[in-house]
Amino acid sequence: TLIAIFSFAIQSMEERKSFFYLGMVLLALGGWVFSQTPSKFLLWRNPALPMNLSFAALYLLPSFLTNYVSYSYPVHRRIKHFRRFSMLFLLMYLIGGVLQVTGIAQYTDLLLFSGLALVLFLISL
What we know:
Layout: H1 2-6, H2 13-36, H3 40-43, H4 48-72, H5 79-102, H6 107-124
C-alpha cells in the first residue's frame, strides 16, 4: 500500500505508473495471503469478507500484473492484447458477483474455471 501511495510523489509518469502497479500487485497478493491465514478472524468474525477479498485479489491480479509489466519493461506491442484479455478477469469477477447475489452459483463453484484461466494467462504472459 505504501508503494502505491508513494508512487504519486515520483515526477516521471512512466516510473509513477510502474510503482503504482507494483504496489497494486503487492496489495492483491498480500490480500490473498491475509485472507488465507487463520489470523483474519482476529479482525473479522465474519468469514465472508476475507473470502471475498481472496476472490477479488484472484481476479484483479492479471490486470495489475499486465500493467506493471507493460510500464516497467520494454515489451512488444502484443502486450496490449494481454491488457484486453486481463479485463475479462474483471468482467468474470462482476459476473460471478451477480451470480452469487442471485443464488445461481457461488464464487467457489467458479474457482476451478477462473483458477485455470489465471494459470494459463500467467504462463502465456
